[in-house]
Design goal:
The protein has helices at about 60-75, 105-110, 120-125, 125-135, 175-195, 200-210, 220-230, 235-255, and strands at about 10, 20-25, 35-40, 45-50, 85-90, 95-100, 105, 140, 150-155, 160, 165-170. It is α+β, with helices and mostly antiparallel strands.
Length: about 260
């Protein structure tokens, strides 16, 4: 029996004489507009697959999109991102990206089933920002981050991003960064709307991050992180400046007395 639990999951019959692929299940909970997501065993090891829906599978435009996403994601390596490790033809599915298996539940499902915990909130404050910062540092273009594409592993509730990007730029625009911050704020607002406790500090962060006017949002993920940690960027820059001045004075003193 498949170890992964997903709403509406459906077993898929596959015919693979080599025995490489087995126990394939369609996961509608993770489906995207053009793609289906499956879990299966490859050589006896659980993995996840992302392949084009049947109606798009023979279209060269969509095949190129899937291949480009694979090329974008293949070299990404982060503990809070579901890693892509192969791209190959799978019996009954077609060309598919092969992911590390993610054993857990979507944030959307945890919200719907009222299963949010303090640890999950902490993961959103830390691990999600870590992953978002990593994606931006690598100039990855991606769809908005939503509760639907975040997984929390079952045993330790670690956060994993499932759908992290489909292309890469030489440099992200300020609009790309502003959009990321807004999607984080909107996600945080939805989570807080479904929490029994009132968390005014996080609510304020969510309100600023999701402001309609980009000018009113945080300038960067780093600024947003400092707001969550109750740190002032002005104070931080002042501390850095003071440290640099002190080190300069020390170097001059040592040089004078050498």
């Amino acid at each position: 029996m498949n170890h992964y639990t997903s709403k509406g999951e459906r077993k898929v019959e596959i015919h693979d004489p080599s025995g490489k692929w087995s126990e394939m299940t369609l996961l509608p909970e993770w489906a995207e507009e053009y793609y289906d997501v499956y879990t299966a065993k490859k050589h006896g090891k659980w993995v996840m697959l992302k392949a084009l829906k049947k109606e798009y599978a023979s279209d060269p435009v969509y095949r190129d999109k899937l291949e480009r996403e694979f090329e974008t994601r293949y070299n990404l390596a982060h503990p809070n991102i579901v890693m892509v490790n192969d791209y190959e033809e799978v019996p009954g599915v077609g060309m598919a990206m092969i992911f590390d298996d993610a054993y857990g539940f979507s944030l959307r499902r945890l919200i719907d089933e009222h299963r949010l915990t303090p640890r999950i909130i902490h993961r959103l404050e830390t691990q999600l920002l870590d992953a978002l910062e990593y994606i931006q540092e690598h100039h990855v273009v991606h769809y908005p981050i939503t509760p639907d594409n975040i997984i929390f592993t079952e045993y330790n509730e670690n956060l994993k991003l499932l759908n992290v990007g489909y292309d890469q730029k030489d440099e992200l625009s300020s609009q790309d960064t502003a959009d990321d911050i807004r999607s984080y704020g909107e996600l945080l607002n939805e989570v807080l709307d479904n929490m029994p406790a009132t968390l005014p500090r996080l609510r304020k962060v969510a309100r600023v991050a999701s402001a309609a006017d980009p000018i009113r949002r945080y300038r960067s993920v780093g600024d947003m992180r400092m707001a969550i940690e109750r740190k002032s960027p002005v104070l931080m820059y002042a501390c850095i400046f003071t440290f640099v001045v002190a080190m300069t004075v020390l170097v001059c003193y040592l040089a004078w007395h050498a």
